Amino acid sequence: MVYNACGQKEVTTLHHDLPNYMECPAEPILKLISGKWKPQILYLASKGTLRFNSLLRQLPGSNKQSVSAALRELEDAQVLSKKVVQEKPLHIEYTITEKGQSMLSIFRLASSFA
Amino acid sequence: MVYNACGQKEVTTLHHDLPNYMECPAEPILKLISGKWKPQILYLASKGTLRFNSLLRQLPGSNKQSVSAALRELEDAQVLSKKVVQEKPLHIEYTITEKGQSMLSIFRLASSFA
DNA sequence: TTAAGCAGTCATGTTTCTTTGACTAATTGA
DNA sequence: TCAATTAGTCAAAGAAACATGACTGCTTAA
To answer: Where, by residue number, does the polypeptide cross the bilayer (chains A, B) (predicted)?
Structure first.
């Protein structure tokens, strides 16, 4: 069995021009961890729990809307988990998941080509 | 020595809010291999030498301008090399470099999270 | 010589991403 | 009670990415 550049079996034939055409499964993952703020958010999340306003301060030049959207995307993809902490000054915490932790290997590998 | 999520030593301090702030070196690489056409171009390049018009036909829905820009970016980053072939019907060839070949591992790793 | 293929560029338009500013609503400290 | 902090949302503007159509200049096959 032949595997393509994306580590996927080559089976599907959709276009005569593309004998073994197949969408790259890495693309959605690349899209998930790319963008203006997500790599840095993931990096900070790997160091410890995040809180919204503190995160904003840690990302100079960022804004509520972009950070909020990034957090939601990462949460939807189970890379971060969000929980309301019913403590002293009632707040929200974003924590990196196991999946998120293991996805950091992509960053380490990518940075070896810098 | 402490290494951050991007596999980089933590030294720089730029902001009081960021005791160990540092740009993630994976970001430019992620940017280089992301986008609408670059992953697929890289995949095709891994299978063999590319020629402009043939590549366009192999990327249904693409266009000259986008593909041309993608090829230039990848060439500038030494992921592809371009050469004029002085043969029979004089043409141009884009070939994946060693660096490009080894960068395919990023796609394989990323696709394992799909 | 004429048309078709190759390898593009340029100007423009559209779509998507990112930022800005105003606003909400609950909690907490002085 | 007043101001600040936390955690956002919404609409709109601006920037960046991507697509379209017209055009160039060279080569080759009929």
So the answer is: none
Q: What are phi and psi of B108, to 5 degrees?
A: -60, -45
Q: What φ, ψ does residue B2 adopt, rounded to 5°?
A: -95, 135
Which nucleotide is nearest, taking the CA of residue B62 and each C1'?
D19
B88 touches strand D (CB under 7 A): yes
Task: Enter the pTM of the model.
Answer: 0.86
Residue B44 lies in domain = 37-111
In which band, very low, low, confident or very high, does the pLDDT at A24 lie, cut at 50, 70 and 90? confident
Strand D nucleotides within 7 Å of a protein CB? 5-12, 17-22, 27-29
Residue B22 lies in a domain: no
pLDDT digits (tens, 9 = 90+) for A48-90: 999 999 999 999 999 999 999 999 999 999 999 999 999 878 9
Tell me the shortest Cα–Cα distance from B27 to chain A, in angstroms.
7
